[in-house]
Sequence to fold (50 residues):
Amino acid sequence: MITMVKVRVSYDRPEQLQKVLKILGDAVLKCTTAKEQKGRYNRAYIILKY
Fold:
């Protein structure tokens, strides 16, 4: 049985998101960015296999 964990990440620059994804490595099942980015920070939603 695969358990999933959902994580919301806020970031300023795309390089920051890429670094987080690199750290998480093979645990990432899916990563999506918010379609409408409002405010100072961008948002990404990451689903991890646990």
In short: The longest helix spans residues 14-24. Residues 26 and 49 are 9 Å apart (CA to CA).
